[in-house]
């Protein structure tokens, strides 16, 4: 991506060799480049903006539309998307804790594989986070390649929930291969702090 690379995940220390703390290398992100790529991927009518109907194909960005739409016109411009991404850099955090659980038909769903998949326009540095729900439906996410549990990178994510028995998928496609679930993970999110409940009810 073009533009100045901005480190967005900073400040998290882990124990390295010999018990010494080692800093997690912060992924870098180009907000303007990522925003331009989002427009390229999802602007189906070519007007340079993303309407609510176009955001249906991008659950992660749709989840952030209320915060990103600064002028309240119901659409997202490249500038608004870049501005929202830029707030993650300003937060100056490495990873954030995510409280997540899965329910189906009003009951906790154990044994479900949950994956937070970063929207592709963010580039390769924002990694997926995944975990399997326990008997209470709770999920401890683990970032790909990281050594900590219950954490996630900041970003726009589409969320996939899968549970299989005998090779057969038990969860409707709208929650996995054709997911409509999306989350924006940021440091100041009350939804993240209070707990993200993924409801995969229905047939």
Question: Could you describe the 3D structure shown?
Answer:
By secondary structure, the chain is α+β, with helices and mostly antiparallel strands. The chain folds into two domains: 6-91, Recoverin, domain 1 (Orthogonal Bundle); 96-199, Immunoglobulin-like (Sandwich). 22% of the residues lie in helices and 29% in strands. The chain is built from six helices and 19 strands. The chain has helices spanning 31-42, 52-55, 59-63, 65-68, 78-91, 190-194; strands spanning 6-7, 13-15, 21-23, 28-29, 49-50, 76-77, 96-97, 100-104, 107-108, 113-118, 129-132, 138-139, 142-143, 151-152, 155-162, 164-165, 168-169, 182-185, 196-199. Strands 13-11-10-15-18 form a five-stranded antiparallel beta sheet. Strands 8, 9, 12 and 19 form a four-stranded mixed beta sheet that branches. The longest helix has 14 residues, at 78-91.
Helix and strand arrangement:
Blueprint lengths: L5 E2 L5 E3 L5 E3 L4 E2 L1 H12 L6 E2 L1 H4 L3 H5 L1 H4 L7 E2 H14 L4 E2 L2 E5 L2 E2 L4 E6 L10 E4 L5 E2 L2 E2 L7 E2 L2 E8 L1 E2 L2 E2 L12 E4 L4 H5 L1 E4 L4
Parallel strand pairs: 8-19
Antiparallel strand pairs: 1-4, 2-3, 5-6, 7-14, 8-9, 8-12, 10-11, 10-15, 11-13, 15-18, 16-17
Helix pairs in contact: 1-5
């Amino acid at each position: 991506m073009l533009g100045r690379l901005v480190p967005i995940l900073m400040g998290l220390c882990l124990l390295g060799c010999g018990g010494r703390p080692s800093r997690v290398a912060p992924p870098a992100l180009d907000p303007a480049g990522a925003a331009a790529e989002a427009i390229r991927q999802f602007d189906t009518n070519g007007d340079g903006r993303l309407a609510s109907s176009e955001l249906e194909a991008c659950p992660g960005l749709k989840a952030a539309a209320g915060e990103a739409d600064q002028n309240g016109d119901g659409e997202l411009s490249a500038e608004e998307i870049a501005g929202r991404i830029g707030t993650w850099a300003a937060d100056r955090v490495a990873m954030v804790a995510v409280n997540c659980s899965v329910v189906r038909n009003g009951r906790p769903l154990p044994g479900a594989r949950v994956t937070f998949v970063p929207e592709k326009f963010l580039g390769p540095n924002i990694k997926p986070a995944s975990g399997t729900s326990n008997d209470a439906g709770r999920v401890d996410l683990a970032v790909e390649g990281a050594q900590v549990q219950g954490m996630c990178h900041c970003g726009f994510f589409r969320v996939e929930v899968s549970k299989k028995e005998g090779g057969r998928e038990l969860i409707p496609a709208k929650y996995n291969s054709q997911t409509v679930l999306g989350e924006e993970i940021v440091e100041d999110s009350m939804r993240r702090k209070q707990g993200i409940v993924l409801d995969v009810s229905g047939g």
